[in-house]
């Protein structure tokens, strides 16, 4: 009988620790994704819609910036979806679905790809390429 009660106590501790981890991920991913999404879309609307209407000879940004912005917007949308799925997991008694883990992992991979791209681009720029 004591083995059963100790097993349930261990399970309860794991569930609490898991909930704290999920809450920390939601607090990290959600606000960062929302902030990056709105600041990027505001800048993109200004660069691609407002400035061409206002300036006579406006030159659009280079393709490398367009690709970076597209990946950034996709990463932000994935972060918002991951945050929603994590909040849904936090509110229920069930374990997280496989899609929740995949989406969260994809968000962190996307952020790592963006950081590596920026680092690589800056190093190429410093070498004069």
- Biggest sheet details: none
Kindly estimate the percentage of residues that lie in beta strands according to DSSP: under 5%
Q: What is the radius of gyration computed over CA atoms, rounded to a whole number of angstroms?
A: 21 Å
Low-confidence runs (pLDDT<50, min 5 residues)?
4-15
* Overall tally of structural domains: 1
Shape: elongated
CA-to-CA gap between the ends?
71 Å
Determine the number of helices (DSSP H or I, runs of at least 4 residues).
3
Concise synopsis of the structure shown:
By secondary structure, the protein is mainly α. 86% of the residues lie in helices and 0% in strands.
Key descriptive features of the protein:
129 residues, elongated, mainly alpha, 86% helix
Give an account of the 3D structure:
- By secondary structure, this protein is mainly α.
- The chain has one domain (2-126).
- It contains three helices and no strands.
- It has helices at 2-54, 63-91, 98-126.
- Helix 1 (2-54) packs antiparallel against helix 2 (63-91) and helix 2 (63-91) packs antiparallel against helix 3.
- The longest helix is centred in the first third of the chain and has 53 residues, at 2-54.
- It starts with a helix and ends with a helix.
- Residues 4-15 have low confidence and may be disordered.
